Amino acid sequence: MIQRIQSVFLLLLALAMLSVLALPLWHKVDGLTHQELTLTAFGFQTEGWQLPAGQGPVWLIGALAAASAAVAAFEIFQFKARGKQLMLGSLNLLLIVATLGAMFYFSSKGEQLLNIKLEGQYLPGFYLPTLALLLNLLANRFIRRDEQLVRSMDRLR
Question: What b/e sequence results for 73-99 when a residue is b if at least 16 CB atoms lie within 10 Å of its CB, and e otherwise?
């Protein structure tokens, strides 16, 4: 049943993780040199200067976010196998935490590229995985509740 509340949570989770792909995550501006650095899900974008080589696989953020959205979308249609849904929810939890970790790691690498005394700003795209984490936990809670309801009805038969 796609109209269950956990399906709504999973759909919102997938939309939040897809939004991570489109929105900037972190931004830093050096007022003296007018250099700008923006972290997106697929790399660093610069304005006013050339980025040095060797910043690492920043595209990993985008890959993890896309994988999390795909798992959430697949999980919606597994409503007949609640055990599988719970397993996919656990996998999605790991993917979201890995996305958050990668975002923190690459934003700290970006901090070192410009004036270290200035701090960068976290943009709205940075906070969306936290929302997705909350939505995943809520979806798993309601999936467990459905499983307990089905088991209690089986005991009555």
Answer: bebbebbeebeebbebbeebbebbebb
